[in-house]
């Protein structure tokens, strides 16, 4: 019930999707109502803004990729005052790059 479709020009990833931010979880980087276009198939490099979902569930982790190895992913969360997080690769359900933002 929370899904809708939008036409986005020049986006070649058929699996890309949009997420609308609700609440203050990603302050100060993103505010309530901001629209993120996320590409799960886009290449991800150090310093890219990303979204990560753990297999165990819970909230999405949004932040800047600090380091990615075969065993772990280190993320600097957007949340003000939050410490960097290290997530073992085996615990990651999916990882996607934020490719565009409407603020």
Any overview of this molecule?
The protein has a seven-stranded antiparallel sheet, with no helix packed on it. The protein is globular and about 35 Å long. A hairpin with a 7-residue loop joins strand 5 (72-77) and strand 6 (85-88). Helices cover 0% and strands 43% of the residues. The mean pLDDT is 89. The protein is an all-beta fold and 103 residues long.
Tally of helical segments: 0
Residue ranges: pLDDT <50 for 5 or more in a row?
none
What is the N-to-C succession of helices and strands? EEEEEEE
Structural class: mainly beta
Strand order of the largest sheet: 1-2-7-3-4-5-6
Compute the separation of the termini in Å.
24 Å
DSSP summary, beta strand count: 7
Major sheet size, sense and barrel closure:
7 strands, antiparallel
Nearest-integer average pLDDT: 89
Shape: globular
Radius of gyration, rounded? 14 Å
β-sheet strand percentage: 35-45%
What is the percent of helical residues? under 10%
């Amino acid at each position: 019930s929370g899904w809708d479709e939008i036409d986005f020009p020049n986006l070649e990833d058929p699996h890309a999707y949009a997420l609308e931010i609700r609440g203050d979880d990603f302050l100060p980087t993103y505010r309530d109502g901001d629209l993120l276009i996320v590409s799960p198939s886009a290449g991800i490099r150090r310093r890219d803004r990303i979204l990560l979902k753990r297999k165990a569930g819970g909230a999405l982790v949004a932040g800047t990729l600090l380091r990615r190895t075969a065993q772990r992913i280190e993320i600097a969360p957007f949340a003000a005052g939050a410490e960097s997080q290290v997530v073992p690769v085996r615990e990651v359900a999916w990882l996607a790059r934020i490719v565009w933002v409407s603020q």
